[in-house]
Amino acid sequence: MALTGIEIFKLLPKTNCRDCNFPTCLAFAMALAAGKTELEACPHVSQEAKDKLSDASAPPIRQLTIGHGDYEIKVGGETVLFRHEKTFFNKPGFAILISDEFSDEEIEKRLSKLSFYQYERIGMTLKPELVALKHTGRDERFLNMVKKAKDIPYGSIIMCEDVSLMKEGLEILKGKRPLIYAANRDNFEQYGVLSKDYGCPVVARGNGIEDVAYITERLTSMGIKDIVIDTGAKSLKQAFYDQITIRRSAILKRFKPLGFPTIVFPCMMSDDFMKEVMGASVMVAKYAGIIVFSDFTGESLFPLLLQRLNIYTDPQRPMTTQEGIYPINNPDENSPVLVTCNFSLTYFIVSGEIENSRVPSWLCVMDTEGLSVLTAWAAGKFVGDLVGAFIKKCGIENNISHRKVIIPGYTASIAGDMEESLPGWEIIVGPREASQIPSFLKTWKH
């Protein structure tokens, strides 16, 4: 039975030395109870405590790292079935499949897609993270493909059934921590040795959940901890069933042979690309650690990146935009100034309508702790004196020749207090609805 953070704390040295990268032993104990760290992170814990905490401290789904440096990704480490219970932490990695059957031109094109399909949103960069390099029998072309992957900073999945060729690929990518695909009933000993020798995570691939559990038990008996599960599902229905079964077995029943992140291949479940994308969408929600695509296209990848962002964002913390001045449509000193809150949905709606108006404008985004305009106003975070102070502080007056600012129509009541906070400024009450912004701006006269 899992121990509480306080019960774990009683068994720790209580030195608050911070060698575990937590500020106190209590903080470390709480993280250990939540499955966010491992007991080995504490270098001073006694052997007696290790014996007592070995089972309780292990997270239900192991967290592991693929890749290296700034482009490494973490998968697994989840402790709940549903995001309303607690935040989902490690979002699934998106990988593009590249085969040695492809021409050199196609291989280069696909490798470049990881850097091409990157989107700036709410102060973050949304992007895919991995390349899956598949061997189909063309040994020399496969190794050349691996060498090309070495020159890009993204993580790699090496898909090869030839043990000697896999070793050559791992040697090329030494230090980049690729994912080895895959150990099965016939070769788990050889692939387990490669995993240990090169310090790389390995996929346990089986024909169904029971087969996978058998392989993971054999790999863990070899001392291998970083394992990814592939049940071999070839249909969306089976993959969906497997993902839920694995997550529930690991979290609710603490069944250790299934306590690992998973990899799925929607690209092998349908020849229809849109059905593949639909399957990937299901796997983002339930509960894949890595999703391999046959290809990336902007119109399919961007919605999936947004879905992934929404699911793996803390539901108790609203998504926010950074406070500051946002120039839209190349404004100049005569352009109108609008002010709004930093709730991301509000920002994107307002900025989108300003952009659609084609009127060059300055949008001043005020930090309201992620609250929408009316909610922030009701909470006292978007009131006249505070908005006025923000207009002074943000420095917008250095960008314009006039002294006029447009406020949201629903907060017209703050105009008086803003005038007191901004002597010499004219406070203009804008439209109530964002959809009315384009027509309103077209009547602007500085």
Descriptive account of the structure:
There is one protein chain. Helix 10 (273-285) runs parallel beside helix 11 (298-311). The protein starts with a helix and ends in a 5-residue tail after the last helix. The strands form five sheets. The protein has an eight-stranded parallel beta sheet with strand order 10-9-8-7-6-3-12-11. Strands 13-15-14 form a three-stranded mixed beta sheet, with helices on both faces. A two-stranded antiparallel ribbon has the order 1-2. It has three domains: 5-57, Electron transport complex subunit B, putative Fe-S cluster (3-methyladenine DNA Glycosylase II, Chain A, domain 3); 64-311, Dihydropteroate synthase-like (TIM Barrel, Alpha-Beta Barrel), CATH 3.20.20; 324-441, 3-Layer(aba) Sandwich (Rossmann fold). With 446 residues, the protein is an alpha/beta fold. The protein has helices spanning 5-9, 25-33, 47-57, 104-116, 139-150, 163-172, 188-198, 209-221, 236-251, 273-285, 298-311, 344-357, 373-378, 384-394, 415-421, 437-441; strands at 64-66, 73-75, 93-99, 119-121, 124-126, 130-134, 155-159, 179-183, 202-205, 227-230, 263-264, 290-293, 324-328, 337-341, 361-366, 404-407, 426-429.
List unreliable stretches of 5+ residues: none
CATH topology call of the largest domain:
TIM Barrel
Radius of gyration: 27 Å
Structural class per helix/strand content?
alpha/beta
The side-by-side strand order for the widest beta sheet comes to 10-9-8-7-6-3-12-11
Shape: globular
In whole angstroms, how far apart are the ends? 69 Å
Number of strands: 17
What helical percentage do the residues reach?
25-40%
In what range is the share of β-strand residues? Answer: 15-25%
What's the CATH class of the largest domain, please?
A: Alpha Beta
